[in-house]
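In response to a reviewer's request, we include the raw inputs and outputs for one of the modeled complexes. The two entities were modeled together in a single run.
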Amino acid sequence: MEIRIRFFASIREKLHRSEATCSLPDGATVADLLGQLCREYPPLAHYRRSVSVALNREYVDADQPLRDNDEVALIPPVSGGTDG
Amino acid sequence: MADELFAIVEHEIDLAPLLAAVGDPAAGAVVTFLGTTRDHNEGRRVTRLEYEAYPEMAVAELRKIGATARSRWPIHAVAIVHRIGAVPIGEASVAIAVSAGHRAAAFEACHFAIDRLKEVVPIWKKEHFEGGEVWIGSQTGEKF
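The model returned the following structure tokens for the whole complex.
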């Protein structure tokens, strides 16, 4: 199956890209995807413990199964608003 | 029933549409919050903040914050607008408006909304300061 991945903020800058696609075997989970992405983009390994994952725009856990054409976003620690 | 307003914008925030969105004849209070770019942070002289969003998800998360606030407090309506791109010193990056029958619930719900926004909404800011730039939330520890 094909998964579309989106990168933002510090991760986007580190990888010099905002999107990628990944082919995974049926039954693969978010954790499998992260493992494959870290092999493909070694700088991602630094983010692995702090990143959250959104599947089709909803936060999910690493054991979440994926389906063909899913959109997965890697979400570094958010910092919207201000500190006022 | 007031119109919903949860949005990500790339221009200066105007409070008027938020006030219109939460306006309600039964409201006795409207509380607003503006988060503005401060000229200093942790000893650095800040020149501007630059915001980036995952816009489709960010709007969905803003809407959820509004729904949660309405389920927890006796309020009428919530509106939240977040600006992305460069936000100069003194200008607002986020605006929240909450209407309620009475002020206590409106204040509490507004406080909840900004705190929750900072925890879950996929928006990031990069601080530009004299001598450099840094993604906020990502500069601590080895992870980033």
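As requested, we also summarize the result in words. Chain B touches chain A through 36 residues (CB under 8 Å). Residues 139-144 of chain B have pLDDT under 50 and may be disordered.
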